[in-house]
Every structure is written in C-alpha cells, then in structure tokens.
Amino acid sequence: MIGLDPRQLLWRLAVIGLVATIVQIAAVSQLEILGANADVTPLVVAAVGLLAGSLPGAAFGFGIGLLLDLALVQTVGMSSLLLLALGYGAGRLRELRDPQGALVPIAVGAGATALALVGFALMSFLLGGDAPLDPAILWRLALTLAWGTLLAAPVHALVRRVLLPALPEDPRRRRRRAYTTGGLSPLSRA
Amino acid sequence: MYDKSLRRRRVALALLVACSLLLLTVYFGESAGGGLHSVQRGALEVLSPIQEGASRVLKPARDLARWIGDTVDAKGRVSDLERENEQLRRQAIAGTDAARQNVQLRRILGLDDAAGLAATRPVTARVIGQSPTVWYGTITIDKGSGDGVRVGQPAITGDGLVGQVTTATPGSAIVTLITDSRVAVSARVSENGVRGVVQTSAGGAGDLRLRYTTRSDRVERGWSVVTAGTSSAADRLQSLYPPGIPIGRVTRVTDAGTDTQQVEIAPYADLRRLELVQVLTARPNGNRP
C-alpha cells in the first residue's frame, strides 16, 4: 500500500459515489433503449473494488447502496448488502488473481451487472416481493446486462482516472515496471 | 503482519454485512413513522434539490439518448401505429357524436367540467428521478406535501394513470408506478363495465393484468380499461382513484370464457419516459362516479 493516501481516497470515493448515484437516478434510469435501461452503480462499485481493493470496494458498495436506498425510498439495507458483496468480490479478484488483460474491466462489469440483477431478484423474493421470471422480464434483464457490459469499460476508465492519484503505487506502475525489471521495452528495441 | 491485515479486513467486512442486515431488519420491523423511515424522508428532502438540478442539467443527454432509442424503435412501430390510427379514426367518429350528446346532457344536468378532473385539484410535477431496478417501479417528483401532495393520491399524465404517491416530504414525493407489484387499482372495462383489479402481470416488466373477472365477463382485445372509482357507499371504503381515468388497452385475453381467463393490459402512459405528471390532490364526492 505504498503511496496510498486514505483521506484523499475517501474524498474521491465519496465524490464518485454521490455523482454516480445522482446520475443514475436523474438520467440513466430514465433512459430506456430497446426496452431496458442501464444500471451504472454495480459497474462503479466493481471498478472501485478492482482498482482500490476489497475493503475500499466493500465500504464503497455499502455507502452507495445506502445512498440509493435512501434516495429512492427503497428497503434500506438491501442495495447496501448486495453492492458491498460486489465491491468485496471485485477487490478480492484483484488481490488474489491480479488480472491484467484489457478485457478484465468489461468481464468484471458484466459479472457485476449480472450478479446485481440476480441478487436483487433473489432478495426481493426473499423479502416477500414479486420476483417473477417470464420471457418479457428475462429479455429486459438480458438487455440490462448488455448495456452494463457495453458501459463497463468507459465507467472503469472514468473511475480509474478519478482514483488514480489516490491509488497505491503498485497498480499504477505495474506495467511500466515489467519493462524496467525484465529488460528493454519493445519500443526501445525497435 | 499479513494475519493482522487479514483479520482487520474480515472484521470490517463482517461489520458492514452486520450493519446491512441490521438496517434491513429494523426497516422491516418499524412502522412508516419509524426512525429509519424518517431518516429516509430526510435524505429524500436533502437529495431532491440535487436530483432536480441534475435532472435539468442532464436533460439534453437524456433527449439525445431517447432520440436514438426512438429512431431504433420507430421502424417496428410504424405498422402498429397505422393499424391503431385506423381504429382510432373509427372511434373518433363515434366519439364526436357521443361528445356532442354528452355536452348537451351535462348542460341539462347542470354539470360542468369543474365536476370532472379539475375538481380533483391536480398539481403538476416534474419527474426528477427514477428507480434503476426492474423490481421497483418508483419515480421521484419535485412537488411534495408543501404543495398539497399526500400519500395515497393518484398520479396521472395526459395519457392515463401513472401510479400513487407512497412517500411525501415538503419538497418532493415518491410515486409508486402501477407496474409495481405493491399497487392494485380497482378498474372497469370501458366498453361493457366489467369490473376487476389491475395489478402488474407475471412479467412485471411493464405490463398489467385485470384480475378477478369471471367466466361471464366478456373482454376483448383492444378494449379500454379505466379506473372504477368508489363503488361502496361507506366512506371508509373509498377508492384512491377517481372514476374514468384511462389505465390501458387490453392486449390479450387467454382462456377467455373461463374462471381462469387472463386479461393482459398495456398501460396507456409511457411509464419509462415520464417527464411531467399530475397529482390529483382532492377526492370530489369520495371518488364516486
């Protein structure tokens, strides 16, 4: 955790959380294309987990979930529980596997969207609400998943841009170090 | 060092999970006037001006995305609209004559439009937020108890019924849409007066179903379903909705003529693209026809 400034990270996470929640409620939720709208909150939580680790990911997920439940007058604690699990999961993935591929944010974003959809359905059902599954709703869920997958990369890039100055040295310099410790950069060889 | 970090992480995670479960339990256990519900209303009051500002700022982006979506949808809708247009033209011809008679009858009875929707004291509100999940059908509006909006009042658009107010703060309110499983509306079929209750369909993704019809209740595709209003003479059994507000059009009737007939309805109001709604803040004559 060299170079990590917890206060700066906290501020940045708070701003990301507030902006993501407001944008989701005031704009993204009201945009329905082909019968479904995107949900950027699981994408943002997954991106934070992937960039900052499991604990900041879980805490951020809890916070953004609480804000969503309060702002939308939903069952308080439901989104918090779900999103903290997503943030923690994405963070653990980074800590245990440290995936480096360019497609990782997209795959993680798609997975986070899918888990959020399934998680909401399960929790709604467990809490006594209707969580029916018929072709119409499955189509809508599939579209939401598709929008989530499409938006995963830009959302991850945005979150990374905001968090970058507050992130530990390691993930920032990882790619550069591969050239400096293992030999010449492909560019200098050419 | 690693063990300490691991232990700390596990403790923090356990605390967050416990906190979420505690919130869930408390929220379910308390009444609508309980502490968490009050905090929720307070948060809504604080966040609604921010939402309102963001909603205005982000309107061009929403309009652009809607234009793209509309363009994609438009191709598939042309033939449907042509068919509907033909049907509406026929209805309009019949309706003009009926309207003329209606005006004459109203004059005779000494009624005017004030006894219609105007008497319900509609308050126009802007939609400033919408729930992102499929399972919750709610919108946030920029008018609240300070404008006369109260819990239980119906919300409509020019197209038809939208839902009912379920939370009201001084500056904003939450409207639960008719496609949410928590809402049920007493309704009748406009063409023959068959009664039932409109609730979300099994899909729950935006379609409705007219429930509790019997085998003798004939309902056909294309017929209109409107709110029934109050049918009981008892004041404590008043309907929340004034009579005659359009809800939707019958799109399919399965197992017709049986006790298990299922009447599916598509709402008239475009519930995913709401910009402005009207909240009916008064109940003239207890919402009786």
From the spread of the alpha carbons, the general shape of chain B counts as globular
- Name the CATH architecture of the largest domain in chain B: Beta Barrel
**Helical content class of chain B:** 25-40%
Largest interface: A-B, 56 and 62 residues
Tell me the number of strands of chain A.
0
- The run of helices and strands of chain A is HHHHHHHH
How much beta of chain B, percentage-wise?
A: 15-25%
Write down the secondary-structure element order of chain B. Answer: HHHEEEEEEEEEEEE
Question: How many runs of DSSP E, i.e. beta strands of chain B?
Answer: 12
Relative helix content of chain A: over 70%
User: pLDDT under 50 segments of chain B (min length 5)?
Assistant: none
Beta-sheet strand percentage of chain A?
A: under 5%
Which strand order does the major sheet of chain B show?
1-2-5-4-3-12
Q: State the end-to-end distance of chain B.
A: 75 Å
Largest sheet properties of chain A: none
First-to-last CA distance of chain A: 35 Å
In short:
The complex is a heterodimer of chains A (190) and B (289). By secondary structure, chain A is mainly α.
Element layout with pairings:
The complex is a heterodimer of chains A (190) and B (289).
Chain A (H helix, E strand, L loop, with lengths): L5 H21 L14 H12 L1 H18 L6 H20 L6 H23 L8 H29 L5 H14 L3 H4 L1
Helix pairs in contact in A: 1-3, 2-3, 2-4, 2-5, 2-6, 3-4, 4-5, 5-6
Chain B lengths: L1 H28 L5 H23 L1 H51 L12 E9 L7 E4 L12 E3 L4 E8 L4 E5 L7 E5 L5 E6 L7 E4 L12 E4 L18 E9 L7 E6 L8 E5 L9
Antiparallel strand pairs in B: 1-2, 1-12, 2-5, 3-4, 3-12, 4-5, 6-7, 6-9, 7-8, 8-11, 9-10, 10-11
